[in-house]
Amino acid sequence: MLWIILSFFLIFGNLDASVIRQKRQLSTRPIWPNATYLFHFDEVFPEWRKKLVWEVMDFISSVTCVKFQESYEEVVRIISQNGTRCASPVAYGGGIVNLKPGKFCDNAINHELLHSLGIQHEQERSDTAVYLNVKKENQLFLNNSEISIIAPFDFGSAMLYAGTENLKPYDMDYYYTMGTLPLSFFDIYNVNKLYSCTCAEELKCENFGYTNPSSCDKCICPDGFFGKLCNELKKEPIQPTHSWQTLSKTVENETLYEYIALPHQNATLEIFVAEFDENPLGGCHGGSVEIKYLPDPRFTSPKVCSHDGGRYLKVRASSNNPTVIVYHEGNKPLNYEIKYRYV
Ligand SMILES: [Zn+2]
């Protein structure tokens, strides 16, 4: 199992080192005019794979004001070439997005498209040193102070590499959270800010949501909150007691939610993952559980998919009402046992 994990990290770590030099030149280039990304696929790009790319493009268009349009003038060319990496220049200006055949680059489509729209790596922000222990001799990870910081640093960003010996979080609870594949709340927020996507009228979104610039009649919500105004839950919250209770769940190919309420304003929920089937892949992309105990639900809380050091047993205190539990879908059935009580 270890070699699988290591090889994932190594590949991910080299995701697009070849374009670091390019990026520094391109990072000051303007964003795509009219928020319209012009591209065409290489002649040999397989039809079935175009669908994967379009799925990601359609998703980005559904939560931002960015549109994707096939064109043969001043464009990005999306190619599928063996022997090279997944890579993309950063920002407007044409160039080549290379999606090497295979599952790895299929999973990195949203990462590369966000580069193409102008979003840099999370580990290259000027405030990286606060969160990450980056080995200086590793030239891949440059502290690029030219990058403008829009959203706060988030360990659940799809623009952050998976943890390695050369790239470790100071808070090791986040080691396996790093390298997440889906776009995070703040990844999408960054695109909206970069392209000044707004609505004529702002809705009164709850739970830190904001008006969706693609559909101004509904909000974009942090994970766990739903509905037009982010004030709906997937199910009724569980009422905790003073004594420890156990919550068991089996999860496979569907993200599931649970909510635990607080009985009164001064109560605090104590909660931890007691047991689970581990699947320790970088970014926990084979499935994980995330107890969202941070007060601001836009941030990713540590995703648990590894028994590493018994860290998962740490009791988290949450004053959120309700506390959201996200069981992120996996690639095989995984069993979780969570214990909780209020104090
Ligand atoms: Zn990258």
From TrEMBL:
Its cofactor is Zn(2+). It is an enzyme of class 3 (hydrolase). This is Metalloendopeptidase. GO terms for biological process: proteolysis. Its EC number is 3.4.24.-. GO terms for molecular function: metalloendopeptidase activity; zinc ion binding. The keyword Disulfide bond applies. The lineage of its organism: Eukaryota, Metazoa, Ecdysozoa, Nematoda, Chromadorea. The active site is at E112. Zn(2+) binds at H111, H115, H121. Residues 18-198 form the Peptidase M12A domain. PANTHER family: DISCOIDIN, CUB, EGF, LAMININ , AND ZINC METALLOPROTEASE DOMAIN CONTAINING, ZINC METALLOPROTEINASE NAS-37. Transmembrane segments: none annotated. Binds 1 zinc ion per subunit. It comes from Caenorhabditis angaria. InterPro entries: MetalloPept_cat_dom_sf, Peptidase_M12A, Peptidase_Metallo. Keywords: Disulfide bond, Hydrolase, Metal-binding, Metalloprotease, Protease, Signal, Zinc. Residues 1-17 form the signal peptide.
